[in-house]
Structures are given as structure tokens and as C-alpha cells.
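ARCHIVE CARD
Drawer: 12
Card no.: 0347
Subject: one protein chain, sequence and derived structure
Cross-reference: see card 0346
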Amino acid sequence: MYALVIDNTVNKIITQPKSLVIGDVRYPAKIFQLWTKSEKEAIGIYEVVTDSSNFKDEEYYVNTNESFTFADGKVTRSWGTATAKNVADTLWTQADSDNGDLPSDKEVGDVKIEGLKTQKKRNVKQQAEGLLAPTDWYIVKATEVSDYSVPSNITTFRSAVRTKSNEMETAINNASDAAALETLYTYTEQEDGSVTRPLGQFPTLED
């Protein structure tokens, strides 16, 4: 990514090499590959340096719009302070009702905007459901065939999935804010070389 600087101000962002006019001269796209850094800067074309120190995971934060500044002979792309997304649900209020904003199919106290916790817990439930579904037929068979018993490894696995699902939802519920919630899902390498996350993983079915 490059920037065209005119009178010490970023005039244009160039996301990919292309022909462009600077002053009264048209320059071909190949100057981006063939010219040296100094040659490009001499006509106002600077390679953009990205400062992502304020940029955060968009799953948990709302980032400000990127900005480009020119200072000390360098163009820097950066972001302002990110805003954490709400972890709790936003509810419809009496004020919404009084203002006529409450939908006809909603009541005061209903969820207006889902928070991150609700979204994450729904994902956990869906994952657990997906893990249990392939072995549901064992349970059905046991209810229909009187002399059939579900294998112990199946019952152990299904119980472990439900237990882990509950543990995950509890951990999500206990997260105080977006940063704490993000930490639950952040993988780190342990001393033994394994990679784990605080939220843990669902069990796998043992043969």
C-alpha cells in the first residue's frame, strides 16, 4: 500500500500499483516495482507503514476508522481507541415503548440486541448438539429395543459433552467484559508444546 503526499498531506491512498498523474506527468504502474524508495518519494509516493497497536479483534471490539498521517518523512496507517462490544444483551426499555420504537412483536424486557455472551453460548450449544447428534440413534434404539443397552463409551462421551458444555457456558457467563471473554478463546502454547485455551475443548468419542 502506498500514499501520494502533496504539500505534506496525504492526498490519495494507492492500494495496488497503477498508472497515475502527479502534476502534469503521468507515471506508469511499473514505477512501483522498478523505482527505488528514494525515487518514488521524490515525486510524493510513500510506502505506508501500519501501526496496528490500537487495532483489536473485530469479533470483540468496534475499531475506529483507519487514518493516514504523514510525519517525519513517513506515512502511517493507524486506528484510534477501539470500543469493546457489549457482553450483555441490550433490552427493550419502557422508554423505547414510550417513544414508539418498540416493535409490535416485542415487550419491554425482551432482547433488543444480543450481547457477546448470548452469541457465544449459542455457539457452544450448537457445537454440543453437533457432537451428540451422531450418537442419538443409540439412545433411540435403547428406548425401542428392550434388550439393548447403550455402550458405556457412548454414555460416557455424551455425559462428558454435556458437562463440558455447561462448564463453557459458566465460564462465558463469568466473563466480566469483552477482554475477559476474548481471553477465554485465546490459544497459547504450553511448556509441553501443546496449544490450549482457557475455555477448553469438547471431548472426543473414544472407541
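Annotation on reverse: The two ends are 52 Å apart (CA to CA). Residues 152-174 form the longest helix (23 residues).
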